[in-house]
Design goal:
Layout (H helix, E strand, L loop, with lengths): L7 H12 L2 E2 L4 E4 L2 E12 L3 E10 L4 E9 L2 E4 L4 H7 L2
Antiparallel strand pairs: 1-2, 2-3, 3-4, 4-5, 5-6
């Protein structure tokens, strides 16, 4: 990762801290009273910023998507929209 961007571990710690989403080493996660399973993730690092997208799936197949943006070791939740599209469609 770049000098000022959060690491993948920092993104995962942010998710656990802010969403109380705890996962084991096999991708089995607990959120509130729901069992979620890690599905996939995507990281894009542009040296001064990074974006992180992580998808979880519940037992019924419903997907839960988290999109995060990191810069200067600070992490922000990103809603779908113009900013996210510009990060991935350059």
């Amino acid at each position: 990762m770049g000098l000022s961007t959060p690491s993948i571990n920092q993104f995962d710690e942010w998710i656990e801290e802010n969403y109380q989403l705890a996962c084991d080493e096999f991708g089995n996660c607990q959120y509130d009273d729901r069992q979620l399973f890690f599905h996939s993730f995507h990281v894009r690092n542009a040296f001064i910023f990074s974006s992180y997208e992580k998808i979880y799936v519940d037992e019924d197949g419903k997907k839960y998507l988290l999109r995060l943006f990191g810069m200067f070791h600070t992490i922000f939740l990103v809603e779908e929209g113009e900013l996210w599209e510009s990060l991935y469609n350059e």
